Amino acid sequence: MTYRKTTAQVRLASFFLALFMTAACGSVGVGAGQQRVGSAVAAGARLYREGIATNGKPVRAFSQTDVPMSGAQAACVTCHRPSGLGSSEGGYYVPPINGPLLFSPRKLDRLRMFPQFFHQVQPQSFTSRLHQPHMRPGYTLASLATALGDGIDPAGEKLATIMPRYRLTEADVKALFAYLHTLSAHTDPGVDAHRIRLAAVFSDRLPASERDAMLGTLQAYVKWHNLHLHEDQSRKGFSPYSRSEYVPIERSWSLSVWTLKGDASTWRAQLDAYYRARPVFALVGGKVDGSWAGPAQFCDAHRVPCLFPDTDLPAWPPSHLGYTVYFSAGLALEAQVGASFIAGHGNGGPGVVQLAAADAFGQLPAKVFQQALRERQPHRQQSLITYHDRAELDAALKAGAGRPGQILVVWPGADATAAVAALEASQPRASLVFLPSRAIAAARSTVKSGLATRLRFADPYELVPSSHVKSFETRAWLHTRHLVIDHPLLQFKEYYAMNMLEAALFEISNDFYRDYLIERIEDESQKDMNPGIYPRLALGPGERFAAKGASVVRLAPDKPAGLAPVGDWIVP
User: Fold this and answer.
1) Options 3.60.21.10, 3.40.1360.10, 3.40.50.2300, 3.60.40.10; which CATH number does 195-327+484-511 get?
2) What is the pTM of this model?
């Protein structure tokens, strides 16, 4: 039996397509019946997330009655999102289709609809639908098939033509039916009736002053949130029809500190152990002095949102599973910006020599830079020299790396100070010497010669953060918490992460699903919450790097920041 066309889908924007593609999920039980159920759920997940039918071929559908769609274009996740809780865009409201809501009669739920009224300026047709939603019975297998094929819901009402009409087999509908029953059906671990458990992750090699400044900010925010919640809960009905409606479903927060010890290759196992002992709803803030690859694997494996980890070394290339949200791509972003900047020196310009430390801080950006420059200028001469210590760096510079007519790019690894000292001692005569932002402080204090005029740095941060209007608000908050602002950049990041988390948790209402939390983070990031550390911060659907670009700067002692931009802001 073949059903003709459709499921609820709004063509939100082409960038929705395939951004949320993840591996099909679903467990296989021991018995034959359990195996069939698990297989059906896995097949339904693939159809929902990738637009692949049970026969392994792309599903086919038509939107607006005659616009053909197939595969990822027609995947339910494109509009209903990984959580199944829907979205809104361009004047259309996409309703939730997760199991508890789809298979129950529709009822008015002001708390769930409340955020949709305020996310965007919407046309009257959008708000009218929210004010007057029609009721319907819960979906059954038969009515789901009718909705998917003919665009008719269980109440006999026509679905919007923007939602595709699908050509699905009976097996396809049964598989999707099975999967939707599991979609956002149970509150995720780390939440109970009264509390949301969170954790911050730090590596043990961080300087104690940095860790204390960041952790102090995180703990102060948790205390502040819990104090306000306690005050609200003690005043019953203080604001009828407004915030007081949310108070019964809000939760207090607890914050654990997960300290990662030793080599980065062991961090994944350590996180697994922490999680087994005490599951959390999300990881938020903190910092690791090394690669985030292991923690990112943990986040994806356990579906734990990891919000704005502060690291120079994100998992690269980024995972499509998407459970880690970064402030920026760190050294990978700076490498791409450097390649864009140097490519502007002409396709037939001087050769480029990279000197990269043997550790991850040197090797990752060197490889990203090499690939990015090759894509822009495939015929430009490039060479890469890896060094293991100061003696090898000195030897490479003495052997002629950075001679006249070359552009020298140095990725100094974990010890930026030693690399900058080597450059000052050797005085390379390259026309340009490019370095990452982690070398700026060392260059300011060490380079006193004419080399300073040829140094260029990638800098993703606001040049004068204190001049950003939102920074005054952030500083005031830190001061009123009696916190010493001795590491403003790090403390501002922690404040931003917690502020974003609080806004997103308020928006998810009582739907404590981790996928939904990330979706709300994406939406909330569009608001003006940047505390002034970056010129621009935002996330689109499926994006996992909030900062998208950087400036190339030079040393400028006469400027307020001691730096001056060279050219325009670069988004690679």
Assistant:
1) 3.40.50.2300
2) 0.85
